[in-house]
Amino acid sequence: MIKILVTGGNGQLASCIKDLEKLYNKLKFIYTDYQELDITDLESVDTFFKNNSFDYCINCAAYTAVDKAESEIKIAFDVNEIGAKNLAIVCKDFHATLMHVSTDFVFDGRKSSFYKEEDFVNPISVYGQSKLKGELQISKSLSNHFIFRTSWLYSEHGNNFMKTMMRLSKEKDELSVVVDQIGTPTYAKDLAQLILQLISTKNTQYGLYHYSNEGVASWYDFAKAIFEEIDAEIKLSPIKTTEYPTPAKRPAFSVLDKSKIKRTFQLEIPHWRDSLRKALLNYNG
Ligand SMILES: NC(=O)C1=CN([C@@H]2O[C@H](COP(=O)(O)OP(=O)(O)OC[C@H]3O[C@@H](n4cnc5c(N)ncnc54)[C@H](OP(=O)(O)O)[C@@H]3O)[C@@H](O)[C@H]2O)C=CC1
Ligand SMILES: Cc1cn([C@H]2C[C@H](O)[C@@H](COP(=O)(O)OP(=O)(O)O[C@H]3O[C@@H](C)C(=O)[C@@H](O)[C@H]3O)O2)c(=O)[nH]c1=O
């Protein structure tokens, strides 16, 4: 049996892992939420590992409120940097492997071709800065780690853009969505499946990897696809970022280059449009 701690156990990605766990009968999961295990508290994390013997920790705990982070700087860094550091320290002490998730928001978005793992990082938001610091803390103190930078996660669980659009399509007749931020929507269940696959095969090709679904889209394209799939009767208009002011800046372009992960693990990654269809089916039962 491989024993796995999933932190942030009530979040979106953790919920996707929960849905898939029945497919992996050699993996035993313990999920902890904020109340059971606060990753910012090193002593609690240490004690939790002492009382259990984990082979892996999947860190699904994070501060993900991009706009709120601009005014809650300390909390964002506590969770995304110090939390990640604590898990790395304790995983090292207890010989466990850490699977961590980071973001396309570590980039400033000025590039015009897909971002590779070794590309220059320059986050333009507090959230992005705190996530980058988390990556650095892990790579500095623990060799047995996987860090997956992903983008625009959505699923039937938690709060995300797909669910926001579905709700707004019921509440409004018209909606405007930014067309000049380009990235790739990623079904959180596809990422969850990859993580469990690597654990179940005890893969040791540690390191930093970019993972998103295939394809390229703006948030407007994403919204349009959602409305098409659900036959929503709503007028959708493309707008510029300047017409939708938010506290946090977001990269104008953050498409991830997935060559490394596809080559290393012989992966075939679904296109975002196909995964969206799957997610909507799963959501609507
Ligand atoms: N969502 C997205 O679009 C993207 C996410 N990512 C990354 O993917 C990962 C998973 O994201 P996702 O599942 O969407 O995030 P969620 O916000 O859905 O889940 C994060 C979970 O962490 C919990 N949490 C917050 N602080 C602590 C703490 N101190 N100790 C323990 N748990 C805590 C939250 O609890 P509570 O809700 O009670 O605060 C929440 O349940 C994150 O690392 C995120 O940065 C990367 C790219 C895109
Ligand atoms: C709701 C709404 C949003 N938008 C814009 C705002 C923003 O630029 C973009 C996306 O909005 P959201 O705030 O839902 O998404 P946001 O929180 O920016 O999503 C990010 O979350 C973090 C956690 C990540 O790591 C990123 O990869 C990314 O997924 O769409 C509109 O233009 N119209 C709308 O009606």
UniProtKB/TrEMBL annotation:
Its EC number is 1.1.1.133. Residues 3-282 form the RmlD-like substrate binding domain. InterPro entries: dTDP_dehydrorham_reduct, NAD(P)-bd_dom_sf, RmlD-like-bd. GO terms for cellular component: cytosol. Keywords: NADP, Oxidoreductase. One of its GO terms (biological process) is dTDP-rhamnose biosynthetic process. Pathway: Carbohydrate biosynthesis; dTDP-L-rhamnose biosynthesis. GO terms for molecular function: dTDP-4-dehydrorhamnose reductase activity. It catalyses: dTDP-beta-L-rhamnose + NADP(+) = dTDP-4-dehydro-beta-L-rhamnose + NADPH + H(+). It is an enzyme of class 1 (oxidoreductase). Belongs to the dTDP-4-dehydrorhamnose reductase family. NCBIfam families: rmlD. Catalyzes the reduction of dTDP-6-deoxy-L-lyxo-4-hexulose to yield dTDP-L-rhamnose. This is dTDP-4-dehydrorhamnose reductase. The lineage of its organism: Bacteria, Pseudomonadati, Bacteroidota, Flavobacteriia, Flavobacteriales.
